[in-house]
Amino acid sequence: MKFKKGVSGNPAGRPPGGTHAAARAVRARFAQLLEVYSPEQMKADLEAITDPKERLGIMLGLASFCHPQA
Question: What is the CA radius of gyration of the chain?
């Protein structure tokens, strides 16, 4: 059975922008970890990485949590 464009087969489904329960749990746990991980410690850990490509990769990965992707 085909549905019309823009009409869901499950009108009571996940709302737009809703997230999966597992994703919410991971985000909550990550937020808990960041509460005890100070910015000073994060800076020291990044400075301890000697490979510039590795450091940049980590910084870009962290940036995705701060800025939405285009």
Answer: 19
- 68 in a structural domain: no
pTM: 0.49
Question: Rounded to whole angstroms, how far apart are CA atoms 54 and 56?
Answer: 5
pLDDT digits (tens, 9 = 90+) for 9-53: 777 777 777 778 888 888 889 888 888 988 899 899 999 999 999
Q: In the Cβ-directed half-sphere of 66, how many Cα atoms lie within 13 Å?
A: 5
Question: Domain span at residue 38?
Answer: 22-63
CB distance 54 to 62 below 8 Å: no
